[in-house]
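Priority: medium. Attachment 1 of 2:
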């Protein structure tokens, strides 16, 4: 399997990092393209092929992943359209807010469409820890399994309906920033409680990691897990209640809904 990545910015670059760290493909089977020479230079010594020619990358891969800003998607896709082999290649577009019907309109060629997907990972894909949402736009089932396997090698993947892609974006792609904001807030609180800044950050990160691993290992509902560490009249329940008095849960839900708009 040869993988072409067109667009080596924040998200595309993070995906290339994940591909290089993972075991789904070898470095020599990855081609990275970006209009900016600087964007691809960081992968020049990785063993991957690098180029500033999108059409060269589009021709090379069995699976072509396109990572560009939403307003550039049409321009980039129509620019590689004639190069793509619709019978051989699979196209995956990673861009927020793009609709499947738009992709079909842009990519129809001689009445045909390629095997085609919309995908939304998050930047933790660089650490093989992404939560990725995958939508089939025009494909057959075996291609879905191939693309899912690729993203599963860099985290977890949910194959979903297009109508849920926006919600998935705010819950996981935007959500990783929300989690980082909690790390920042709790770290600042730790400094006020007397820890050095780096120590406070490490404490908070390890605590979050522990919470996630506990929930994954046990399958407990978060409230059931919370009950395990709250005692009547104890400090944990006092802290939780004070956060709720200040709108903790409500703020999280409002933030997610605002992002989904």
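Attachment 2 of 2:
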């Amino acid at each position: 399997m040869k993988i072409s990545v067109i667009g080596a910015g924040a998200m595309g670059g993070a995906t290339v990092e994940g591909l290089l760290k993972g075991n789904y493909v070898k470095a020599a089977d990855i081609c990275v393209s970006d209009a900016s020479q600087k964007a691809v230079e960081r992968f020049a010594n990785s063993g991957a092929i690098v180029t500033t020619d999108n059409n060269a990358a589009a021709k090379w891969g069995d699976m072509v992943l396109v990572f560009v800003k939403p307003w550039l998607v049409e321009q980039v896709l129509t620019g590689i359209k004639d190069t793509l082999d619709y019978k051989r290649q699979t196209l995956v577009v990673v861009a927020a807010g793009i609709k499947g019907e738009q992709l079909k309109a842009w990519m129809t060629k001689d009445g045909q469409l390629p095997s085609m997907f919309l995908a939304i990972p998050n930047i933790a894909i660089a650490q093989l820890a992404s939560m990725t949402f995958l939508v089939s736009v025009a494909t057959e089932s075996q291609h879905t399994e191939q693309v899912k396997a690729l993203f599963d090698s860099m985290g977890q993947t949910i194959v979903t309906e297009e109508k849920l892609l926006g919600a998935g974006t705010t819950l996981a792609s935007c959500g990783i920033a929300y989690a980082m904001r909690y790390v920042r807030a709790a770290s600042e609180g730790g400094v006020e409680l007397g820890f050095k800044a780096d120590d406070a950050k490490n404490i908070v990160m390890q605590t979050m990691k522990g919470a996630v691993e506990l929930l994954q290992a046990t399958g407990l509902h978060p409230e059931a897990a919370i009950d395990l560490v709250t005692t009547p009249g104890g400090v944990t329940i006092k802290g939780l209640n004070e956060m709720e008095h200040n709108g903790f849960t409500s703020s999280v839900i409002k933030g997610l809904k605002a992002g989904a708009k």
